[in-house]
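Co-fold these.
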Amino acid sequence: MYRWLWQRLPGGTAGKTACAAILAIAAAALLWFVIFPWITPQLPLDHVMPGG
Amino acid sequence: MRTVLRIFGECCLTAGAIVLLFLAYLVWGTALAASAHQHDFATQLQRQWRTHRDTAPVTTRLHLVTGQPFAFIRIPRFGQTWRFAIVQGTGLAQLALGPGHVPGTALPGQVGNFAVAAHRVTAGNPFYRLNQLRPGDDVMITTAAATYTYQITHTELVLPGDTAVLDPVPGHPRQRAHQAMITLITCDPPWTGTHRIIVSGSLGAQTPRTGHHG
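Predicted complex below.
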C-alpha cells in the first residue's frame, strides 16, 4: 500500500519525501480538525449529565 | 500471500497511528480549544462587569444565554490558580467550553439547587479531581453581583439515570426548597459513562463583588 503510493509520488527521493510529508500532515490535519471533533460526541466517553 | 500480509501489517500500523493521534487530540486538542475559550470568557466577563459597575448598580438578574459565560467557579482545594468560567447549558457543545449550568436549576445564591456539570477528562479536565472534595470544602461562585461561598456537605456516587440530584431539594422531587444549594456533577470513573459523582453543598457566605474578583 505504502510502496504503491511511494512509487506514484513525483520527483526524486527528496521530492517524494517532501510530498509524502505533505500528504501525512494533510491526513493528520483532516483527522484532527474535522473527523475527531465530529466523532468525539458519538463515543460513550465521559458523559457527565444525569439522564444523559 | 506476502503481499496480503504486508498490506494487513500496514493497515494495522496506520490504525495504531490514528488511535494514538486521537488520544493526543482528546488529551491536548480539546484542552487547547477549551483553554482558548476560557481565556476569552474571562476577558469578556471582566469587561462586562466593569461596564456594569461604571454605569449602573449591578443588577442581580443574570442574562443567561446558552454557550455564554455568566460566572466563575473557584475551588481552593484544587489550588489558587484553578478557575473556570461557567457557561449556560450542558450540551456537549457547551461542556466542550467549560463547566455548564444545568438549565432550569437555580442561579448562584438563589434558594434551590444550582447545578453545574463538567467533564472529568477532555476540555481541560475541569472536574478531574471532583472525587477529592470533602465535606467542609469551599466552592466559590462569582457573578456580576457577588461571590457566593458554598460549603460541601456530602458527596455520593450515583447511576446515570438518577436525575433526582437536580431537584430543587436534591433527592426529594416534590419538596419546596428553602435553602440555597449547589450540586457539582461529573462522571466516574474518568473516561466513562457508568456512574456520576455528585458533590452537594449549601450556601454559607455571600459577599458583594468589589473592585477585583476571581
